[in-house]
Structure formats: structure tokens, C-alpha cells
Design goal:
The complex is a heterodimer of chains A (77) and B (485).
Chain A (H helix, E strand, L loop, with lengths): L3 H11 L21 H15 L5 H6 L3 H12 L1
Helix pairs in contact in A: 1-2
Chain B lengths: L5 H17 L5 H16 L1 H24 L3 H27 L1 H7 L7 H7 L6 H16 L9 H9 L12 H8 L6 H33 L8 H32 L17 H7 L2 H18 L8 H16 L3 H18 L2 H6 L3 H20 L3 H11 L10 H7 L4 H13 L3 H12 L4 H29 L10
Helix pairs in contact in B: 1-2, 2-3, 2-8, 3-4, 3-7, 3-8, 4-7, 5-6, 8-9, 10-11, 10-20, 10-22, 11-17, 11-18, 13-14, 14-15, 15-17, 17-18
Classes of the chains: A mainly alpha (77), B mainly alpha (485).
């Protein structure tokens, strides 16, 4: 199981912003630089960190960071 | 019939709104469908018949896809069938429209009497938007982002509702689906919707069309034999015309949706204030760029996130070439797309880091430079004209035939053009939201002042409506630029 603190570290690394703290309702609108180009880099970084692989359909279903955390924890369970 | 034709403004819309407000709310869906079919039939009865068949096929495909989506195999071929059918129909229609003359020439003996049908063929109204909406619907069902709509009436309204029939926005079922079940609007929502509609009408009629009337003849010349000053006025004028034409249309569509209880997607967000080309595309025709991002670019990027086979630059180029082709199968639209792709590639590649540190005014100049260059290809009738237009912009082209000084006496540019252009440039900046926020803050907790402000705003809107109607009555009306796509 992981949590938003751990996930925030990945965001801070990808977007090179030590201030980022993500929550369940965080979306791309809330984080500067989170666009379609960086989205894929973020997903790959999450997969590397937790040693998991999402399916394309799972990734396309993410609407907010809460969805991501739920999917990560399902994989880690 | 478009939103600015007298039949729509003085007959269709008032009758529809009256019936919609007086009838029982559970009948709203049915009234909207009937109105939408009448609206489409006004463009041509054959389109209404076509769209009934089109929506039945897509309704069936959506239901079928939902039942078969659990298994990978059936999901893949059902999705290919659903998306392929819509894509092929769109490509075939666009090709047919584009190659009518050649087809008739090839069929010189008029075998089977086909030429009459070929020459009469036109793209069904709004088909580029509707076909894209259907493809997104099927992809979202396959990816379990949404379920298919079981109710045929709701599905018909999702597909054909008249506010978005002419030029979008390209709606997603996941966004608008919940509102289809019980569309109702309070009197305040209807009033707000009408206010938005009038704003869009004024943008289109008082700014876009006035500028369009003056600069249209330039682009109808055999060659742009004009001086640099007039070429720049024509180009900047076209940039303003296109924005006010299309965003004015979007305001009218969104306002109409609001009058009946629908929240249609925003399509523009002050694109000309963008400080990069990628930001421009997050502000311009948002539902089209969002479509290509979510259904083409991201799936390709996601599929190769661990092992890259296609460079990201090629993917960017692909989506912009496709965006160009969406507008029409011409070399000009392909180059138009390629220009935006090149700018985006430069911004996202190594130069991007340097670009982000650039002095902000220079970033705006960079962005507008690319956008204006792209508009040359977008507006020019062909490639030769576009290239000559660049020479005219630099003052290198021949100018004897149409010197700038002689154009004003010719009546192409008059005071109304200058006024419309100035207003267009000023209101391309987000002044109204800024003033609104400032007033909200200043008048907070002062009910009397707030009421006065509301009355003044409505008086201004009535004046805009009167001026727009007077303009339509005196000058006739021109269809929206984006209605032809």
C-alpha cells in the first residue's frame, strides 16, 4: 500500500517542483507543466517507482490523482 | 438556416423556447429532438433522413460494443468497426465533396445519370463534428470510461441537438450524458443563456462579418498584388474575423444549450493571449484539439512509454496533419497543420527550455508569428496564392494593380471596418472577465448597486441585439467560417 505522500515524491521529481503535494482530487489543472507530453512521463515514473505496469485502458481512465492511487494500491495488494 | 438567419432568430428560436418552457419537463427531450430534426431539415430534408439512419446505426454499435467489451477480442473488432465506419464515412464524404469536378469530368458520358447526384452532393451539415463525437463515444465505451446510452431518445439528443449541429463543440458523452436524462433550465439559466447567445451574435455580426466583408475581396483576387500595409491589415483582420466568427458561434451554441439546461463544452479561452503555440492550442478550438490529444496522441504515447518506436515529434506531426485534414483534404490545410507541428516540436524539444526563459513579450511575438503564418495558408485559396501573400507581407510583391492607397476609395475598408478591427483586437484580450471580477469585488454586499449593474448590462445587451439585427437586415447574413468543415 502506498499513500499521497509517497506519490507526491514522484510528482516533485517529474515536474521538478519541491512544493508539490498531491491529494485525491488533484488534476492536471492544479499542477504547472502537467500536460499531455508530461503525463506519459509521469505514468512511466510511477510504474518504475512501484514496479507495476498499468494497461492502456487503466491509464486512459485516470481522471484525478485519487484514481491513480487506487489503481496503484490495487496492483500492490 | 443558421443561428443568424432571420428564420432562426424570429421564428424557430422564439417558438422553440416558448414550447420548451410551457411544456411538461418530461417532454423536453422529445421537443428538443423534433426541433433538432426540423433545424437539420431546414439545411436539406435529405440530411435529416441521413442523420436518423446515422444515429440508429451508432446507437446499435454503442450497445453492441458495451456487451462485447469484456473480452479483448470482441472489443477490438467491435471498436474497429464502430470507429472505422464513422471515419470512412467522413473521409468518403470529404473526398466526394472535394473531387466533384474531377468525378463529373471522368464520368463525361454521365453513366447511370450519376452526375446530377454528384453535383448536388454536399457534406451533411455538421458531419465532421458529429462523426468525431461518435468516434469518441465508441472509444470511451470500449475503454469503460462510460457506458453506452440505453435510451434512444437521449442518444438522439446527444447526437443531433441543434445548438451544436453546425460547428460543434465536439461533446463527450461522459460530460453531457447526465444532463440528457432530465434537461430543465430555470428562468435564470434561460436568461443567462440568451445573454450568452446575444454576446455571440454581436461578436459574429458586428465584428467578424464587418471585417470579413472588407478583407474577403483580397483573398478573392487572382493574386495578392497588394502592398505590405494592406496585406498585414488583411492578415490581422482575418485572424480577428476567424476568432470572432468561430468563438461567437461557440457562444451562441453554449448559450442555446444553457437555455434548455445543457452545459456544452467551452471551445475558446482567449487564444491570442497565449505565450506559446502549445498554450494557443489549449485555448483555440479546445474540443477538437482535446479530441486529438485524448484519442490519437495519448494512446500512441502510452503504448510506447517504455519502449519508444515512434519519436514524440512524429506523433505531434501526425496529430497536426490530421487536424489539418479534418478541415479539408488540401495541401494548404496540411501545411497549416505542419506549421503548428513544427512550432510545437521546437517548443517541446531542446529549444523548449531556452524558450521558457525567454522574455514574455518575445514569447507572445513568437506565438503570434506562427499563428499568423498558419492563417495565411488557412485563408488562401491555394498554395501559390499563399506563397505570393508572404511576398506581399514583406513588401516584395507587385502592387500596381491594387495599391493600398486606392483601396480605401474602392470602399473595401471604411470606418466601420477600422472600428470592428479595433474592437476585435481589444476584446481579444480578457477584458470582460477582468472587469467582471473587479466589479464583483467592488460591489460585494451592495444589492442596489448590483441591481443597477445588472440592468445596465441588460440594456447594453439589448442594444447589441438591436444593432446585430439591424446589421443582418441591412447587410444580409454570412454563414460561419467553420460551418463549411
Amino acid at each position: 500500500m502506498t499513500d499521497f505522500d509517497s506519490l507526491s515524491e514522484v510528482f516533485r521529481m517529474v515536474f521538478q517542483n519541491p512544493e508539490i503535494r498531491v491529494a485525491a482530487e488533484t488534476t492536471a489543472d492544479d499542477i504547472e507543466g502537467w500536460d499531455s507530453l508530461s503525463h506519459v512521463i509521469l505514468i512511466a515514473a510511477i510504474e518504475d517507482k512501484y514496479q507495476i505496469t498499468f494497461s492502456s485502458r487503466e491509464i486512459l481512465r485516470f481522471r484525478c490523482v485519487g484514481d491513480m492511487l487506487t489503481a496503484i494500491n490495487q496492483k500492490l495488494a | 438556416m443558421t443561428f443568424i438567419s432571420p428564420t432562426f432568430l424570429f421564428l424557430f428560436l422564439p417558438v422553440f423556447l416558448l414550447v420548451y418552457r410551457l411544456i411538461r419537463p418530461d417532454m423536453h427531450g422529445l421537443v428538443l429532438l423534433v426541433a433538432s430534426l426540423v433545424f437539420i431539415a431546414f439545411q436539406g430534408e435529405v440530411y435529416a433522413a441521413f442523420y436518423i439512419g446515422f444515429l440508429l446505426v451508432n446507437y446499435g454499435l454503442g450497445r453492441w460494443l458495451q456487451r462485447g467489451r469484456a473480452a479483448d477480442n470482441s472489443r477490438h473488432w467491435l471498436l474497429a468497426l464502430s470507429v472505422g465506419l464513422n471515419a470512412l464515412l467522413l473521409i468518403a464524404f470529404k473526398l466526394l465533396v472535394q473531387s466533384k469536378t474531377q468525378l463529373i469530368a471522368w464520368n463525361a458520358n454521365d453513366l447511370y445519370g450519376l452526375n446530377r447526384w454528384i453535383s448536388a452532393f454536399a457534406l451533411p451539415v455538421g458531419f465532421s463534428y458529429t462523426a468525431f463525437q461518435m468516434m469518441a463515444y465508441h472509444i470511451d465505451i470500449a475503454n469503460e470510461i462510460t457506458d453506452s446510452e440505453p435510451n434512444l431518445l437521449r442518444f438522439a439528443n446527444f447526437t443531433l441537438m441543434f445548438p451544436k449541429m453546425l460547428s460543434g463543440p465536439i461533446e463527450r458523452y461522459r460530460d453531457i450524458g447526465p444532463e440528457l436524462a432530465n434537461p430543465t433550465a430555470s428562468i435564470d439559466q434561460t436568461a443567462d443563456g440568451l445573454r450568452r447567445f446575444i454576446t455571440g451574435l454581436a461578436k459574429k455580426v458586428l465584428i467578424a462579418d464587418v471585417i470579413g466583408k472588407a478583407i474577403g475581396p483580397v483573398f478573392a483576387l487572382g493574386a495578392p498584388n497588394i502592398g505590405a500595409a494592406y496585406a498585414w491589415i488583411a492578415l490581422v483582420g482575418f485572424a480577428v474575423q476567424l476568432y470572432f466568427d468561430f468563438s461567437g458561434y461557440a457562444d451562441m451554441a453554449i448559450g442555446l444549450g444553457q437555455t434548455m439546461g445543457f452545459t456544452l463544452a467551452e471551445n475558446f479561452n482567449y487564444p491570442y493571449i497565449a505565450a506559446s503555440v502549445s498554450e494557443f492550442w489549449r485555448r483555440w478550438h479546445i474540443t477538437l484539439s482535446g479530441w486529438f490529444r485524448d484519442y490519437v496522441f495519448l494512446p500512441i504515447e502510452i503504448a510506447q512509454r517504455h519502449k519508444r518506436r515512434i519519436p514524440q515529434q512524429a506523433n505531434i506531426l501526425l496529430i497536426f496533419l490530421l487536424t489539418g485534414l479534418w478541415h479539408g483534404f488540401t495541401l494548404n490545410f496540411l501545411i497549416w497543420g505542419a506549421i503548428f507541428a513544427l512550432a510545437m516540436i521546437l517548443e517541446s524539444a531542446g529549444a523548449g527550455k531556452w524558450f521558457k526563459k525567454l522574455w514574455p513579450p518575445l514569447r507572445h511575438i513568437w506565438t503570434l508569428g506562427w499563428v499568423l503564418a498558419a492563417w495565411v495558408f488557412f485563408r488562401s485559396p491555394d498554395l501559390t496564392y499563399a506563397l505570393k501573400f508572404f511576398r506581399a507581407l514583406l513588401g516584395l510583391g507587385p502592387t500596381q494593380a491594387y495599391p493600398f492607397s486606392q483601396l480605401i476609395p474602392l470602399g473595401l475598408i471604411d470606418n466601420s471596418t477600422w472600428l470592428a478591427l479595433a474592437l476585435g483586437l481589444v476584446f481579444s484580450l480578457p477584458l470582460i472577465p477582468t472587469i467582471r471580477r473587479w466589479l464583483d469585488k467592488r460591489l460585494e454586499g451592495q444589492p442596489r448597486e448590483l441591481a443597477v449593474r445588472a440592468v445596465l448590462r441588460d440594456i447594453l445587451l439589448v442594444l447589441l441585439l438591436v444593432a446585430s439585427v439591424a446589421m443582418i437586415a441591412s447587410a444580409g447574413f454570412t454563414p460561419g467560417v467553420y460551418e463549411s468543415f
